[in-house]
From TrEMBL:
Its EC number is 1.3.1.22. This is 3-oxo-5-alpha-steroid 4-dehydrogenase 2. The lineage of its organism: Eukaryota, Metazoa, Chordata, Craniata, Vertebrata. It is an enzyme of class 1 (oxidoreductase). The gene is Srd5a2. Its main location: endoplasmic reticulum. It catalyses: 5alpha-pregnane-3,20-dione + NADP(+) = progesterone + NADPH + H(+); 17beta-hydroxy-5alpha-androstan-3-one + NADP(+) = testosterone + NADPH + H(+); a 3-oxo-5alpha-steroid + NADP(+) = a 3-oxo-Delta(4)-steroid + NADPH + H(+).
Length: 256
């Protein structure tokens, strides 16, 4: 039976933080080459349809924690650590795996990026699941702790913004269209990367609610990974559309 090794949690969390800084250094000036930032001269080889790619990439983040939970002997469904995992982390990735991909209208996704995305989801799914199922310990009144309640509210707010922003982006295109248009409505009124802003808020909420090093490392990784992408989206819109609202910020309303 698997047991908790605090040293492993610390090592994996530290590596995740280092990967976050690497992502930031790689993509702060040059965006990751997919979607609207894809090289125009690049041949469409080694790609999967967006729906298939998103499903395969996100699936490990749902399956790995579920497998860890199934392997736990005796089952650990009652402590709060497992409830947090099942209700927050797996809830997000259930949506990302089984709902979001079947509505997305994105362009074909490069296999190389899909491979690295799957590796990350396996890694992070294991880290978050392993910590919450085998290591996390909370007092019985944790559900009334300000960290849990504030984190849960932030998580729900961020997830709501993220899902609503995805819906607005989908409505910009008719089936079969691949052209880009100016997002309108919702938080897009204030920021170019409303969907990214929502996801960052969501995972920082999760980190506060679980009050754990793995979750804070993941929230930091999310910020360093999709924060620069939101910035490059903002620059793309300003360069491509002469009528793009100049009052919009890149990622955080009223800041930058």
């Amino acid at each position: 039976s698997m047991q908790c090794f605090p040293g492993l949690v610390l090592a994996l969390s530290s590596l995740l933080g280092a990967l976050a800084l690497l992502q930031l250094s790689l993509h702060l000036r040059v965006p990751s080459r997919y979607g609207k930032h894809e090289e125009r001269l690049c041949r469409p080889r080694g790609r999967l349809p967006a729906r298939c790619a998103w499903f395969l990439q996100e699936l490990p983040s749902f399956l790995v924690p579920a497998l860890l939970l199934a392997l736990r002997s005796p089952p650990r469904l009652e402590p709060l650590g497992c409830r947090l995992l099942c209700c927050l982390f797996c809830w997000h990735y259930f949506y990302r795996t089984f709902i979001y991909p079947f509505f997305t209208r994105g362009r074909p996704f490069p296999l190389q990026l899909l491979f690295f995305g799957m590796l990350f989801c396996i890694y992070n799914g294991f880290l978050q699941g392993y910590y919450l199922i085998y290591c996390a310990e909370y007092p019985n009144d944790w559900c009334t702790d300000i960290r849990f309640t504030a984190g849960l509210l932030l998580f729900l707010l961020g997830m709501g913004i993220n899902i609503h922003s995805d819906l607005l982006l989908r409505q910009l295109r008719k089936p079969g269209e691949v052209t880009y248009k100016i997002p309108q409505g919702g938080l897009f009124t204030y920021v170019s990367g409303a969907n990214y802003f929502g996801e960052i808020v969501e995972w920082f909420g999760f980190a506060i609610a679980t009050w754990s090093l793995p979750a804070f490392a993941f929230a930091f990784f999310t910020l360093c990974c999709i924060g620069p992408r939101a910035y490059h989206h903002h620059r793309y819109y300003l360069k491509t559309f002469t009528d793009y609202p100049k009052s919009r910020k890149a990622l955080i309303p009223f800041v930058f």
